[in-house]
Each structure stands twice: as C-alpha cells, then as structure tokens.
Specification:
The structure is a single chain. The chain has 2 helices and 24 strands. The protein is mainly beta and 370 residues long. The protein is globular and about 55 Å long.
Length: 370
Amino acid sequence: MMYPNCRRVVVTSVIRHAPERQKAGFLSVIDLSSGRLVRRLSVPESTRRESDVNPRGGLRGARGLDISADRLLLANTERVLMFDRAWNASGEVTHPWMGGVHDVLADKDSFWVCCTSADLLVNFSFDGRVLGDWEWRGEDSLVERFGLQGIPRIDRSLDYRLPHVPPEAISNLAHVNSLSRHPKGLVVSLGRVISRQRFHQLRRRGIVSRVARRLGLPASLGRVRNAIPALPASRLPGSRSAIVLLSGGRPEILRIGSGLPFPDHNGILDDDRLVFNDSNASRAVEMSLTDKTCRAVSVPGDPPFVRGLLRIGPRRYLAGSQAPAAIYEIDFERKSVLRQLSIEGHPNESVYAISRLTDDFDDPPPALCE
C-alpha cells in the first residue's frame, strides 16, 4: 500500500492498572508501508502519580500529541513536552488549568490543549503564556441544548493538576477530550456531557463537602466512593456527547449523541463528512452533514475502546483500540478494516492518540530525554 503523505505515524498509549513504579505511558512509531514497529519509548509520568487513587488510568500514561513545523508536542496528564526534529528535549509547558490533559493541537506560533479536568480549551504560546481559551459553560446555546441552565462558570483560581479538586468545583462536566483543525476553525469533541440529574448530584456533594471543611470534618464526607472497575472510563448512564465547530462566533453543533454511559472521542471534518469515534459502540463513524446518513466500521478489541483518529487518505483513517493495543486502517469507501498494526504493548494497554510523523523528523532514539 502506498502512503505518499504519511510514511510514519506516532502513537501514544496508557497501561491501565499499572502499579505505581511501573511505566504506564508509551510512545510508539510505526512505519505504515511495512507495518513495522520502529520504536517504543516510555514517556515521563505525572509528578503526582503516586498520590492518585484511580487505578483505571487516572494520572497514568501518555496523552495527546501533534507536530508543528519544527517540534513534536507530547502531553502527559499535566504538562506538554516539546522535542525537536532530532528528538532532543526543547522545553515543556505546564499550568494550573492543565489537569487531565487529553489532546493537543499545534499551530505555527502556539498550541491548544484540552484541559479536560478544567472543562477548558486553552491556547498557549510555546513559552507557556496563556493566549486565550474557550469555555463551553459560557456558551448559552450549548448550556441550554444540554439542559444545564444554572451551571457555574469555571473556577479559574484552582489547580486542576492536583489529584483531588474540591467537589464544589464540579469539574470535567463535558469531558473536552479532542480537537482537530478545519479551514473554518476548530472541531472540538465534548466526549461526555453529564445529565442534569448528575449535575445536581455533584452540586449537592459539593455543598456537603464545603460545609464539612468549615466544621473541620473530613472533606471525604462529601464524596461517594465506588469501586473502580477495569473499564476504560467511569460509567455515567444518561450522558450526551457533542462535536462542535468553533469558527469565531457561536459554536456550531455538528453532532449530538445521547444516552451514553462512556465518553466518545475525536472528530475530523472532511468536506461535508464528519468522522468520529463512537467509543461506546467501538466503531468509527463517517456521517454526512448534508443528510445525516452514516457509515460505521467496527473496531476490534476484547474489550474494545476506539480512540485516536488520523486521516491518511481519501475516506481512509487510522483509529486505535485496546486488548490488543493496536491501530486499525479503516476504509469508509469499502466499509471495512483493511489491517491491524500492533504496538506490541501490555495486555491492559490502550491507544490514546495518533499523529503523522513528518519526513523531516528523525527516527526516535532508544530513550526520550527530558
């Protein structure tokens, strides 16, 4: 198979339930022509991982990645690392809003980060200055569409990198988890928007927690501790998902999903076709924005969890999954998976993000240097 515009891809992944001292985040480079795994490298972990009580994933793993003209951006849960074309470390950016980072998108002079815990999309300069942000809670059209009138705005004084954000912050309500570029603007995935019922539950829990702290009682009185299952994400039935286009004015809703227990991921707008990962049904979907007809291709896994999406040709994409950790070449014209490309990972490893590795980048060294 020929890939004139995409010879190599780079893939990030996370090992779920990895013990504290085991590496849990990896970056893999795959040659598409041969299907060969060129390199598999461990990624620097969160500095707060030892205090994380969520074994399912939590602060573990490698997250979003993208390439600008001369740098590769690689995120873990709290910072964005930068590497030059020879894979030398060239800097890093972190910020109190950078909690639960999911995706990054590079521009020529800046980059965007899905600050998922903070419910924010933030634009940073390469030296770490905040250049702008987008807060979906400030968009009346979205708040009303989701039935979340009365929702508070983001508390920007908090450090969302900490494992325990105060319950009254009511954070991560829409799971801002991925973004892509389109000539008209940014395509943003709100992977799981909580229900109004769930919002009221969280608000009551926050009130209890705040009162408990004022009385000198443990703040955990305001929390409900449930067993954390070995699933890709927590289960919140009745949630929605949305993909929106930000083009300078009001956000345009491209797609709404409903009745979801788990988050959906990714969104790429190609002409009048929106391609996204229906992670709940573990399938990649191509939807016409003209007549809303869909073509869906199931993505394997045991259990599956499709996440990560990259266009490599006309109506042809790569999508990732878990068990086994692999990426799959999908052809929507044929409505089929053409092949599987393994990253030779751990049984509990799940693909996170996929990006093109341009030809002016060297193959990576045996280890990453911070």
